[in-house]
Amino acid sequence: MAVHEVASRSSRYRVKPAPLVGVAMIVAYVVVVFGLQLSSGIPYVDWVSTPAHGLRTAVLPLALGSVLLIGFLAMARWDMIWSDPGRLPMTTVMKVAVYFFVACLLVRAVGIDWGAVDADLLLVVLASGALVGFAEETLFRGIFLRSMRTQGRTEAAAALWTAIAFGLFHLPNLVVGAGPTQIVQIFLAAISGATLYTFRRYRGLILTAMIAHGLWDASLFLGDSDGRDWLGPANLLLLAGGLVLGILVLVSIWRTDKTTVVTPAGIEQK
Fold this sequence. Notes:
The chain is built from ten helices and two strands.
């Protein structure tokens, strides 16, 4: 892409991409979504216990959070949100992590007792999964990642900070009643964020990460509520495998992309 084309694209920004803007959007999203969830008065453990609760604490907040993000992007006119300017290489570890993630989803699908799942609640869970996949991927592997791909920052640094931000994003769950175990969940979320990043990287499209994220959250809830007896122990083994692979993915990204810079002009090497 010619220099004047890049300059022309940059001049269309109404809000210039920058890390502080990415952080501000995370804070704004948390205020909207968690604010609505807290205002419901429904205990955390009962958020999706019934279709009505799920609509109030999941579907409505996530839908409004999505509107916030879409509104920001329409106003800010950022590029590189939905797709990358080129294909970043996928290492063997990254590919294995993606395939393992898909295998986990298949195991959960088999392990769910679909006959025991309430049809109305299933619709709410699927809607929540679709919305959380869209909103959180737009926020993290879209807006925040784009905000970190600035000032000559390497892709390794941008991906690492995006994973850390995704983990810290789950801190408010401590306030709503998830309990001290949420500290562990913050670490696990950061690692899973690295794997979700590889889904975007796989085809250079955020849509793949959205689908993976949405299916993961929906299957996790259904597996916990209506899983067969063997699914619990299987999930622990899968979690351990995913944790190891996620850490290896971060190491692989750091080694592969410590000189890679992603800009609207394309993928460059320092």
